[in-house]
Specification:
- The complex is a heterodimer of chains A (293) and B (257).
- Chain A is α/β, with parallel strands linked by helices and 293 residues long.
- Chain A has 2 domains: 4-161, Rossmann fold; 173-292, Rossmann fold.
- Chain A contains 11 helices and 12 strands.
- Chain A has a 7-stranded mixed beta sheet with strand order 2-1-3-4-6-5-10, sandwiched between helices.
- The two termini of chain A are 28 Å apart.
- With 257 residues, chain B is α/β, with parallel strands linked by helices.
- In chain B, strand 2, helix 6 (152-163) and strand 3 form a beta-alpha-beta unit.
- The chains are: A alpha/beta (293), B alpha/beta (257).
- Chain A binds chain B through residues 20-21, 23, 43-44, 46, 48-49, 51, 53-67, 84-85, 88-92, and chain B through 1, 99-101, 103, 109-111, 113-114, 117, 119-129, 131-132, 152-153, 156-157, 159-160, 164.
């Protein structure tokens, strides 16, 4: 299992070395890697403690001075506490990136306080111009971080980090959407790092996965074409329905001549268990997929 | 950020300026005149005698926006026409500072209206100035209210400002002691506020917010020599220059008519 946070800390260390106008705020999280980065750049790596709301305000102030600001914290806390700030200051969020560790059921057994299954839905609801990254591999995360790091003026970016296994399928980060299998019984779209470890090659389906949102409508065309061919689109998403990508696609393709089946967790998953268990309970595992097909 | 040029202006008479504000509120039936009255002298002194073009001012207590617009008009940051249209249908200048994609001006850099946001924003600006080693240094002034200091975010920011040694920040606390429905001492005890801020490392001053040229303004003149974040408590009255028989609580939604 690869902890994507370690890839982030290696990347940010190098980025801070080459970019004086970059600052990392961390919300009392990231031991021990963050401490190495802090030792090197004590002025620009700042522990803001458990102050998620204020930290976003400070980031807005700092970004107004031409800095790129990274906020590293637990996904659920880092987004929901400052929900009002997203709502009010949406126009001022440029050049700010939130690195949310433990997206989806990423914190598993730590419980529902830590689960982040309404994360990018909140951003969509706030109406802010945000790029949501759902890295499916280490390489993809690094590619996505460079997208933010190399551009002069960015929209607000949210990185949803979930620990991933060394992928058995090839992810091409540049594409954001990849097709991994071909078949004709159904079209499957998995959002972020879902089912890729357990995907059954015997399933006779077109399988796509997606690592970034939003996308242009023409980038979604291959999925639409495939669904028209198979007559059935099954979307797997580790996010509640409101504000989800499957909600958007369901609306976009509501008049098309294919059925859309969506698998997603419900609002309050109070069950206790690790991520695999919770995904299974939410119907987001390979067994459920076989049933849908 | 594009910094608008500021006119060097002779300060108008306080009473004249205040009357202009009362008329502005009356015409629009705009509430919060009491919030404006209490901080009038603080901002009058700040904008006519202390602020420099490279400084920042953040109005955390967004209720006093009409006063900010008026001061910006006198400095040529907003036009007469914008002032006339402000707080009317179709104007981008609402009754709280506007949320704009680009900084409107460094004397009105951010929108506000939800209390408790100004200190955090100020901390970010001051940190940016510090890391850039700006020369001449920019000072960051923030006006906060009693209600502002109810908010948890303000306390998160107060801790961070002290922790990061953001000495360029001066917090101007308009302590008029009345919130929308209650006396503020229900929430803020000044003796513990002062001792707590002092423990955190703030340079404190406390005095009358309606007496011009009182000590804090001298301190602001020599601000660079104070190597502490500054917190000035101004005791003010919500009905100052308004009807003195009017209860301060009644002035909160008072529109001057």
């Amino acid at each position: 299992m690869m902890a994507l946070k370690n890839s982030f800390f290696s990347w940010i260390q190098e980025y801070l070395a080459n970019n004086e106008k970059a600052v990392l705020f961390y919300l009392d999280l990231g031991w021990p890697s963050v401490l190495d980065v802090k030792r090197k750049y004590p002025q620009r790596v700042i522990n803001c403690g458990v102050t998620e709301t204020n930290t976003l305000l400070v980031a807005i102030g700092l970004a107004s001075q031409g800095f790129k600001v990274f906020i590293y914290g637990i996904s659920q806390f880092t987004l929901w506490r400052p929900a009002e700030i997203f709502n009010l200051y949406g126009k001022n969020l440029k050049n700010i990136a939130i690195i949310g560790n433990g997206g989806g059921f990423g914190y598993g057994i730590l419980g529902s306080s830590h689960h982040s299954i309404k994360d990018y839905g909140l951003l969509q609801l706030s109406g802010i111009s945000a790029t949501i990254f759902l890295p499916r591999s280490q390489d993809e995360l690094l590619y996505q971080l460079n997208l933010f790091g190399q551009q002069n003026e960015n929209t607000f970016c949210y990185y949803r980090l979930i620990n991933v296994n060394e992928s058995k399928v090839k992810i091409h980060p540049i594409d954001s959407i990849n097709q991994h299998r071909s078949g004709n019984k159904a079209t499957v779209l998995s959002i972020g790092p879902l089912i890729q470890d357990h995907f059954d090659p015997e399933l006779n389906v077109d399988w796509f996965s997606l690592g970034r949102w939003p996308l242009e409508e023409n980038q979604l065309k291959p999925i639409e074409r495939s669904a028209c061919k198979t007559g059935k689109l099954i979307i797997f998403e580790e996010h509640v329905w409101p504000g989800s990508i499957c909600q958007f696609l369901n609306h976009l393709w509501r008049h098309k001549n294919f059925a859309i089946i969506t698998a997603h967790p419900s609002h309050y998953e109070n069950l206790v268990g690790n991520r695999s268990y919770l995904l299974e309970q939410a119907g987001l595992d390979i067994k459920a997929l076989k049933n849908y097909v | 950020m594009e910094q608008q040029s500021k006119k060097n202006v002779l300060p108008p008479k306080r009473e004249d300026l205040f009357q202009e504000l009362v008329t502005f509120h009356k015409k629009r039936k705009l509430p919060h005149l009491g919030s404006v009255a209490s901080c009038f002298d603080i901002l009058y002194d700040l904008f006519f005698f202390r602020l420099t073009p490279q400084d920042y001012f953040i109005l955390s207590k967004g209720h006093a926006t009409s006063l900010l617009y008026l001061l910006l008009k006198y400095h040529g940051v907003i036009s007469e026409a914008e002032w006339d249209r402000a707080c009317r249908n179709g104007s981008p200048l609402a009754a709280h500072p506007p949320f704009a994609e680009k900084m409107y001006d460094n004397w009105m850099p951010f929108g506000s209206g939800s209390l408790g946001c100004g200190l955090g924003l100020a901390a970010g600006v001051a940190l940016g100035c510090l890391l850039q080693k700006k020369d001449p240094p920019s000072q960051v002034f923030v006006l906060v209210s009693d209600g502002d200091l109810n908010a948890g975010t303000s306390w998160e920011a107060l801790h961070l400002i002290a922790q990061l040694k953001l000495y360029s920040i001066t917090i101007l606390y308009d302590s008029n002691e009345y919130q929308a429905t209650t006396h503020s001492t229900e929430f803020i005890n000044h003796s513990s506020l002062k001792s707590y801020l002092s423990t955190l490392g703030y340079h404190l001053w406390e005095g009358d917010g309606h007496i011009p040229s009182d000590p804090p303004w001298y301190q602001i003149q020599t601000i660079n020599q104070v190597t502490q974040p500054k917190f000035f408590i101004f005791h003010t009255k919500k009905n100052f220059r308004l009807n003195p028989t009017m209860h301060p609580l009644a002035t909160h939604y008072y529109d001057g008519s």
